[in-house]
Design brief:
Layout: E1 12-15, E2 22-26, E3 31-37
Antiparallel strand pairs: 1-2, 2-3
């Protein structure tokens, strides 16, 4: 029996590992060529 744990990361937009200014689509198995500008963070409720 192995002590390794298989981790599954859900598909979605994540910060690009090579460029923090963009997000890249992770398809659940690997990075795709789909990229987009990193969205600006919204101010928390009650802080403006």
């Amino acid at each position: 029996m192995s002590d390794q744990v298989n981790r599954v990361v859900a598909a979605g937009w994540y910060e690009d590992p090579d460029d923090a200014t963009i997000v890249r689509w992770w398809n659940g198995l690997g990075w795709t060529e789909n990229v987009a500008a990193k969205p600006e963070r919204a101010a928390p409720v009650g802080e403006l």
